[in-house]
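ok so I'm stuck.
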Amino acid sequence: MAVQFHRLMLRTLLKALTLLMLTGLASVAAAADQAAPATPVKKVSVIVIPVRDEITEPVHYILRRGLKEGVDVVVLDMDTPGGSAGTALEIMEALGKFSGKTITFVNSEAMSAGAFIAAATEEIWFAPNGVIGAAAAVTSQGQDIPETMRLKLNSFLRAKIRAASEGKGYRGEVVSAMIDKDYELKIGDKVLKGKGELLSLTATEAAKTYGEPPQALLAAGIAKNIDELLTKKYGAGNYEMRRFEVTWSEELARYLNMIKPILLGLGLLAIYIEFKTPGFGVFGVSGILLLVIVFLSSYAAGLSGHEPLLFFTFGVILLALELVFFHTAGLLGVLGALLMLGSLVWGMADIWPNQPISVTWSGDVLVAPLKTLFLGLVVAGGLVALLARFLPHGWIWQRLAVSGAVAGDGTATAVVEDQESLVGREGVAATSLFPSGQVEVDGRRYEARLEVGFLEAGAPVRIVARSGFNLIVEAKKP
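replied:
not stuck anymore, here's the structure
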């Protein structure tokens, strides 16, 4: 009996000690939790992009650049009477490629093309005096378009809006009523817009709820400004906001992109001439400047970053090393030329972050830059042909002809005549010919080109003709 009593007391004591230890550990853990600093909450990154005045290409450019910044939220600060429907559709397509959240803040008005763009964003917020609507398509002069074309265009626009508005309440129906005056907007038994007029909504009307369960007609909310909008969504101090603004660079890029093939062709021609003349001068500077303008106009249009320009510069360096110093049988030259042409295509491609490789380098992405590059090469080739055909005695031609002389005096004309007199003479390859390079005749160097094959430096050659900027040579037969 005494043994059982002692055992019972021992068990009770052990339970009490265990409970006491668990309670102490819990208190220590709670104190540690209170003492440990709270994990900081990552702030939402926000870019605000203005969609102001008439919607034109510069708005598209700055929007595309902002969407590629890798932020969490893009807010369109909208106050526009409308603009180009084509540009609006391009902006809608760009919004669809953005992986973050898109919000439109109707900061006064979003009319016509502005309503299309707003419909493509995830949420539409309004300033207290905001108005949206009247989105019928018109001509560039603001006139009504012919009836048949209007019906086709309205059908297309309504299909685009339905696709962009899927799963967003009444939005597709509301915007359809803004596009088509013959569309009746009816929710339940209530007709909100009859046939014969275009729908426009105030902020209050857009925020009014309908149906079961109640849903706002169009508005996600009303806020005095963008700061209040973001505070309502994410809380005070829980977001970091930056603003983009349309500047002169976007306006200039609008015009430069229209003549990009010409700029590209002139740049390639100038660099070609520079490599065919001694030293480094106005042609080299002009060519590099023109191609830099091509890259910068692509950047301003939101197509690419600065990386393609770095690769282009590396390609120029390799090509210069090949022509001036190493003469590696064309290896460095070919690699440099490929880098230059590849970087030009890259710089003009509309590449989006986080896209799969299969999409990034798909045919659709590369069609436009390859077309521009092809046109640029055509321009450069055509100008080279014109120089060779019509300017055989002009300043540029004479400068090219004198490029190879390394000894003696004389005018450029004399050097041209001297080159013509070389036909039939023999010399040696001063550099590797693959197929172009330099040959030496009587201690003087001249630009030369093989018609077929290649030769190492020091090989004996015979001059057979003069064509364009070069002497045409062949390997001397033993």
